[in-house]
Write a structure and sequence with these properties.
The complex is a heterodimer.
Chain A (H helix, E strand, L loop, with lengths): L9 H5 L2 H5 L12 H6 L6 H12 L7 H9 L5 H5 L6 H15 L5 H14 L3 H16 L2 H8 L7 H6 L11 H4 L3 E2 L7 E5 L4 H5 L1 H13 L2 E4 L9 H5 L3 H14 L7 E4 L2 H7 L2 H4 L7 H10 E3 H7 L15 E5 L3 H4 L6 H8 L4 E4 L14 H4 L1 H18 L3 E3 L3 H11 L4 E3 L1 H12 L3
Chain B lengths: L5 H11 L4 E2 L2 H4 L17 E2 L4 H13 L4 E4 L16 E4 L6 E5 L4 E5 L4 H8 L4 E2 L12 H7 L6 H4 L6 E7 L5 E5 L11 H5 L8 E8 L1 E2 L3 E9 L2 H13 L6 E6 H11 L9 E9 L4 H14 L4 E4 L3 H12 L1 H4 L6 E4 L9 H14 L3 E7 L4 E8 L4 H20 L18 H4 L2 H14 L21
Parallel strand pairs in B: 2-4, 3-4
Antiparallel strand pairs in B: 1-2, 5-6, 6-10, 7-11, 8-9, 8-10, 12-14, 12-15, 13-14, 13-17, 16-18, 17-18
Helix pairs in contact in B: 1-3, 8-10, 9-11, 13-14
The chains are: A alpha/beta, B alpha+beta.
Chain lengths: ~450, ~475
Amino acid sequence: MSGETPSRLAYLHDLDYSVVQQCMHCGMCLPSCPTYLETKLERNSPRGRIALMRAIADGRMEVTKEFGDEMYYCLGCLACTTACPAGVNYPELFEYARAEVEHQDVLFTPERRFWRWLTLRQLFAKPWLLHLAGRMLWLYQASGLCGLIRRAGLLRLLPVNLRELEPSTPRVERRFSCELIAPVEAPRGEKRHRVGMLTGCVQDLVFASVNRDTVEVLRENGCEVVTPRHQGCCGSLQAHNGDLEQAREQARRLIDQFAVEEVDAIITNAAGCGSHLKHFGNLLADDPDYTVKAKKWDAKVRDISQWLVEIGFRAPRAPENETEPVKATYHEACHLCHGQGISRQPREVLRAVPGLDLVELDNATHCCGSAGVYNITQPEQAGKLQREKVEAITATGASVVATANPGCHLQIENGVAGTVTVRHPVSLLAEAYRREDGS
Amino acid sequence: MQKLSASFVEELRNIAGEESVLTRAEDLIPYGFDGTAAMREEATCVVLPRSTGAAADVVRHAVAHGVPVVTRGSGTGLSGGSLPVPGGIVLCLVHLDRILEIDTANLTALCECGVITKAIDDAIAPHGLFYPPDPGSMKISTIGGNVANNSGGLRGLKYGVTRDYVMGLEVILPSGEVAWLGSKCVKDVAGYSLKDLFVGSEGTLGIITKVLLKLIPRPEAKRTLLATYDSMQAAARTVSKIIENRIIPSTLEFLDRKTCQCVEDFAHVGLPTEAEAIVLIETDGHETVVPAEAEAMARIAEENGALSVERARDEEHAVMLATARRSAFAALARIRPTTILEDVTVPRSRLADMVAFIEETAEKYQLEIATFGHFGDGNVHPTVLTDETNGEEMDRVHRAFSDIFDKTIELDGTITGEHGVGLAKKPYLDRQFGAASYALLGQVKEALDPGNLLNPGKIFEAKPAEAVA
């Protein structure tokens, strides 16, 4: 390639053209796409977006701000991937397209650049910094400072979009995963497997107890659990937001922390991470030092419910004194059902919990609007999806909704406002094991 | 590219609303195609009116300025019929999407043209009613598009096609006038059956905005079978025997081995991938008749060389099998970059000959062709798996299809059973029509659309539009 046509189209051109060509624009994706259903405009549909990507790859269209906006209007929920009979690799197209948008900087504003730098390159790139920020947030929330500031009206100093978000800031847990989980934990009873445990970033700060429950459940099922300290973000946040370079960096760092050869599986309990973690092979395909390692890694990654069903997990015994059954329903995280094709296993886990009466949720696979940081970047569309989800949950009459992704967890929790309890399926299972002992 | 004048576009915005007129490249590129492979045309302007009145005003305005109008629904057509016309506007009617009336006394439904086909059946099912036509894209295709293409589906053999359910239509004429054609009466012979002229007219005569549909009682029982064969001829024998035994199943679908493999790869419903042909058989109707018919058909299949006959476990399994079949066309896209689908149709008794000829043709031109389709009504979908960027191979593809069309006509068939002519089959239409009937097309077009502004150049080449200032 000549010097004067530099990497203008590098990212979409890097992509094997056959991935774009795979879309035969039959339209089967349209009814699955939340943004198309909202506007009924082709550009807001999967095949429309792919048509734009193809136009860029063909040199028929420039990468414009409009294109950038479109790529960020897409939730990345991947419902189209499930709907697509032709097997288009939309996740890859979507990540490359966002990377292209960032590469060309068509959405540039000083604030946007600052926030991207702070989150993608600092907070979620440096585990110690994220922990520090987490501590400070915990202090802010636990000390009462938070209430004081709210009462004093100091939040007015924040820009409006952040101010609106402040009340929905997740509660940070007092203790993070490294304080709750030992580097190596022995199984209860006979050792049948040795697994690595991913603690994640948001999960680590906000749902460290879900991580603890995951370890408990693994131990109950003959797994020795190895948990490297201070793992940090897996890079899915960066990859989904157009920073593939940083995502690669974090993938390498994560791989280095695990002795992949020495474990039977690497366990994640966050859907958004899992669907990213299973594709390090593609992400690092051009890195000769990591190509082989990344492929081995991919083959080992399992979502917790997937792993439990695979090894034939033990159903908890019903406690002696029967209690009133609890009605529960299950919301499928997009990156579990569409991203990883895992639908059956979490339900199997839930059905095994004694005293839990599982009822199906209408449109269980529809996105709740969380979609990574979508609820921050596109609050209107995210809010609409959240309302639809909450209505469906309310209609079931369930008092518990289970879901296996921190983003969905927070989004639904904010939506149901205390009327329904949100739990990770693995926490419900862990609790059932604990109840066996009468505790 | 011919550009539309700024004042013309400005007036469109006044009529349809600012938000409803698209002119930016990012908005237009996704309207440059429909569901047809390897066909693209740049759109100049897309208008998405919110009411029939606005749509009529758009048509009047366009015609007054000599601007062509291409009507579009969800853009799932398979003959390029809704591809934009250079210098024209695309009139996309997806927002006209209300079901206006379900008349349970007269068994009819009145829908706006943009209602999704499956949404109609979903809405009437609680009333115990049924709308049988089920094109492969029914989850997203619009009823207006179905009527404009006279779409078929899996149930054609027993229940017929879209035309058999259209009792009335509202259409916008090129003058901008809105005409109502037909009635709720089962018997209605007042004047020419004008509605029938518009069914299958592919947007070339008028713009369908409302559809009055005939509904029938919902069958209470259904049984689904899956039979496998070591040859298409053996499968065809079963089909003939079933019909000879005076059983008319609601579905008789076949898939060849390659199609089966692709579908299974997508849908994971446990289709056998080793057999040369599989036949999906469904019968529906009264609870006392259906099980007996299903057993009779299973026996006929077994007696006529089926390798295996499997019965669907339950309703869910049956739906899974039918849904998997519906995905056949798109699932075939897994193999090669470009998937070109045809839909030649022959009298049922000639179907095995047709399939054999397709196999020979694939061999002759060294092409990969998968075949599936509707055994019951003779409608075959030979699907070429190719690469549109390979000119030499595409040349062979065109020659192969040309041969297949000739053979179809020789077998008293038709070059398109349910997809329409559009652009894709336009070059072959005159082979099927005699000179007199081909000329008739032009006469009808000229009578209704003298300016040749409604979807010009589709189906056949009408006389060029007169220049209007």
